[in-house]
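[Q] Does anyone have a clean structure-token version of this?
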Amino acid sequence: MIHTHETDAAQPRLSLRRSGEENHHIWNNNGTWWVHYTVHLPDYTARRVRRSLRTKDVAEARSRRDELLRGFPSAR
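[A] Here you go.
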């Protein structure tokens, strides 16, 4: 169950699975790393997002993924 307050009901929330795998949410597509995640919107819809991380380096891809996902509150 997700408990929300009136003030945070208007913010999109991420749905993230916690995994011990360090490359979770990223994949390599022909040499370029991409990230994918699901955003749950205030109107109770969800949007799947896939974005290029614009790097061929896996360590840089992990860093960019972490920075990108840090910008969203996550659903718990």
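[Q] Thanks! Anything notable?
[A] DSSP finds one helix and four strands in the chain.
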